[in-house]
Amino acid sequence: MAIATYGAQAHGGKIVSLDDQAVVKDLAALDGTGGNAYAPFMLSGILSPGEVGGYAKLRRLILRVPHDGAVTVRVTPWRDGLDTGQTIERVLGSTDNPTVVAPQDVTGSVFQEKVELSAFDGPASVGAGEIAMIPRRSVR
């Protein structure tokens, strides 16, 4: 059972349900009209090949994106704290498989993954994920 979460508008005095899965726009009216589409994103924790000072090649992210409607998923690998700009975009229809495979080819010491959801017209979430990383030698 979900725990209800609410917030209040600072300038309007409205109480807003923050966990209403039917809401796909920010500041929409109760009947769903108006408002602004938004693109939530998450930046993963640091993924490391395990060796201090070592480096690796990030090869793939496999991610479940459960969704009840259409959704666009953008995956961008980060290398050593910086955005690589190598964005992979997948557009999922309401009946598409929720598994997103994002091939990557990034070499670095530590990695992160930025996952952004946009253009959704129903509930969508980011589920379990798996990465493939190939460790490289740190010394000869």
Helix percentage range: under 10%
Strand percentage lies at over 45%
Number of domains: 2
The CATH architecture classification of the largest domain is Sandwich
Q: Give helix and strand order, one letter per element, not per position.
A: EEEEEEEEEEEE
The tally of strands reads 12
Low-confidence parts, pLDDT < 50 over ≥5 residues? none
| CATH topology heading of the largest domain | Jelly Rolls
* CATH uppermost class of the largest domain: Mainly Beta
The CA-CA distance between the termini, in Å, is 55 Å
Please give a quick description of this structure:
By secondary structure, this protein is mainly β. The chain has strands at residues 6-8, 15-17, 25-26, 36-37, 41-43, 55-64, 71-79, 82-83, 88-92, 99-108, 111-118, 129-136.
Q: What does this protein look like?
A:
The chain has 140 residues and is mostly beta strands. The protein folds into 2 domains: 1-38, no CATH class; 39-136, Jelly Rolls (Sandwich). The chain has strands at residues 6-8, 15-17, 25-26, 36-37, 41-43, 55-64, 71-79, 82-83, 88-92, 99-108, 111-118, 129-136. Strands 5, 7, 8, 9 and 11 form a 5-stranded antiparallel sheet that branches. A 3-stranded antiparallel sheet has the order 10-6-12, with no helix packed on it. The chain has a two-stranded antiparallel ribbon with strand order 1-2. The termini are far apart. The model has no long low-confidence stretch (mean pLDDT 83).
List the helices and strands and how they pair.
Elements: E1 6-8, E2 15-17, E3 25-26, E4 36-37, E5 41-43, E6 55-64, E7 71-79, E8 82-83, E9 88-92, E10 99-108, E11 111-118, E12 129-136
Antiparallel strand pairs: 1-2, 3-4, 5-11, 6-10, 6-12, 7-8, 7-9, 7-11
